[in-house]
UniProtKB/TrEMBL annotation:
It comes from Leptocoma aspasia. Coiled coil: none annotated. Pfam families: RLL (PF10036). The gene is Rtraf. This is RNA transcription, translation and transport factor protein. InterPro entries: RTRAF (IPR019265). Belongs to the RTRAF family.
Length: 224
């Protein structure tokens, strides 16, 4: 909005930048004047803004930076020991990012819960409960998310197959039996492909579990 933009520039000059004397701000304050763009262009040159008058976003960003520098310069003692809001919450953010960092893996309730989940999901038991927990997480992500369930629920439409293009390799002497054998062979190939896919998924899951070094959060170190 043009009016809001002009008011913003005037506010920055009046309250923060204060490059002009009060009596010299009249042309800039007259935001309804047709000559305001010329006054603004002169103002940009006077404050040494490197951007052109039509580069509004860049100009606003630069003027805000100038205002911050001047505000800090006027109140250096007030701001020098200030801590950014983001830094104040850095520790809490880190803890939230690692929800298991304070987890007591020797707690009987934790072990019982992991074991109950493993039994429910038919996951192989392991001596390290954290490893089992990671396996549970992988299974849930891969198989039990809404997207995974929706994908698994989708019905698969078969594609027409021309049996005459597939060589059986032997002849039973009966055309009908030959055709049935061809169908059985194609179904067997499809089952082998599904099995290979499951094997690949199992390999990926195992690699995801064992690829990371064992971490002991309590000791604050990584490695076996």
């Amino acid at each position: 909005d043009e009016t809001e933009f002009r008011n913003f520039i005037v506010w920055l000059e009046d309250q923060k930048i204060r490059h002009y004397k009060i009596e010299d701000r009249g042309n800039l304050r007259n935001i309804h004047s047709e000559d305001w763009p010329k006054s603004f262009e002169k103002y940009m040159k006077d404050v040494n803004c490197p951007f052109k008058i039509n580069e509004r976003q860049e100009t606003v960003d630069w003027l805000l930076g100038l205002a911050v520098r001047l505000e800090y310069g006027d109140n250096a003692d007030k701001y020098k020991d200030s801590t950014p809001d983001g830094a104040k919450n850095a520790d809490n953010t880190a803890k939230n990012a690692e929800p298991l960092i304070n987890l007591d893996v020797n707690n009987p309730d934790f072990k019982a819960g992991v074991m109950a989940l493993a039994n429910l999901l038919q996951i192989q038991r392991h001596d390290d409960y954290l490893v089992m927990l990671k396996a549970i997480r992988i299974l849930v992500q891969e198989r039990l998310t809404q997207d995974a369930i929706a994908k698994a629920s989708q019905s698969k439409e078969g594609l027409p197959v021309a049996l005459e293009k597939h060589i059986l390799g032997f002849d039973t002497g009966d055309a009908v039996i030959n055709e049935a054998a061809q169908i059985l062979r194609l179904l067997h190939i499809e089952e082998l492909r599904e099995l290979q896919t499951k094997i690949n998924e199992a390999i990926v899951a195992v690699q995801a579990i064992i690829a990371d070094p064992k971490t002991d959060h309590r000791l604050g170190k990584v490695g076996r």
